Amino acid sequence: MARLMIVGAGGVGNVVAHKAAVQEEFSEILLASRTIEKCDHIAKRIGSKKLQTATLDADDINNTIKLLKEFRPDILINVALPYQDLVLMDACLEVGVNYLDTANYEPPDLAKFEYSWQWKYHDRYKEAGLTAILGCGFDPGVTGVFTAYALKHHFDEIHYLDIVDCNAGNHGQAFATNFNPEINIREITQVGRYYENGEWIEVPPLSIHRPIPYPEIGEKESYLLYHEELESLVKHIPTLKRARFWMTFSQSYITHLQVLENLGLTRIDPVDYEGTKIVPLKFLKTLLPEPSSLAANYTGQTSIGCHIRGLKNGKNRNYYIYNNCDHSKAYQEVGGQAISYTTGVPAVIGALMVVNGIWKKPGVFNVEQCDPDPFMELLGSLGLPWYEIIDRPSPFEEN
Ligand code: NDP
Asked: Any idea where the Saccharopine dehydrogenase-like C-terminal domain is (predicted)?
């Protein structure tokens, strides 16, 4: 039996709390976040005796350490924002708590996300005998587990990886983001980047796009983006010749985004407004719908997967592995939409892997460095069934 602390009571925190509360491995759960009302609202909806709540500003290391010492969790799931990653990793080291997150660290004043800051903790976690699992949502997260599973069971060498992420849902709003608006817009407006033949190639934001077919959905225009799992997968699977990430956006979404950018509303540097410094993107966030508020009226599904090509027994192999998740089914089950659901479920499975001892090794790891099989065994039963298509023509055959 293990004690779990969840930090962050947004869309993903809600799913993590719901799913963790029904796992017998967790005896006590503390949901802590900046706004206690959000924690209490989630706890009331779940109605589990295991679950308690607390206020926490995770930018404040002393208060974070104090709360960790009081509750003494075995593992902390960080589903606050990427800005809090380092404080939470430091606090876990100080108190002796295992750590797991779903997004890599970003400095608030620099639209740059990479694993370097968190990978530097490896030796300290190793010496402390603690485990930190990085990027254990869906993408990053399941996409890394899918790739590791493909390598273990279907390939001798992986050469080409295309991660494809489609949201074919409709929430009825003119413009909204599916997870934290600030983090989401920073991700999409940055320069596009992919890996080819040992180099990172940069292209203007959203400048490369093509229609890609998604199971049960059909073709959707998909845009090449830089996504953080590319960095760790290229490092851990050195036979990769090319790795790319694609995400669907509607024309209306892109037009809204372009207008917001042209107006300067996606800027992350402070500007003077009547004598007060404000960051335009943070102001924009206050105007946009909260991702969790989209859930009630969301219809349609998401489809995320990995198209992989490489060699098996000296022959070329095409392989596709994916999950589709239905927004309204997620809402019926946990009161959240599919983006939050597909992030929260893997985070809970990752935490179970650590507290059960299966992924418990000292150091800081990305998911593809861990055994994919026990994780994949739980994925379907916890709500994210997955499917494989082997040796059929790939939409990426030509390029
Ligand atoms: P939300 O904005 O809905 O929730 C974030 C929560 O974190 C809010 O409850 C917020 O509190 C809380 N928070 C923010 N700052 C602090 C702080 N300093 N101390 C304590 N709590 C804080 O975001 P989501 O739930 O949509 O996303 C959560 C995380 O999941 C993000 O890091 C996101 O990048 C990641 N993610 C990962 C995905 C993946 O597949 N790997 C996909 C989608 C999301 P308050 O309510 O007071 O603002």
From this structure: 137-381
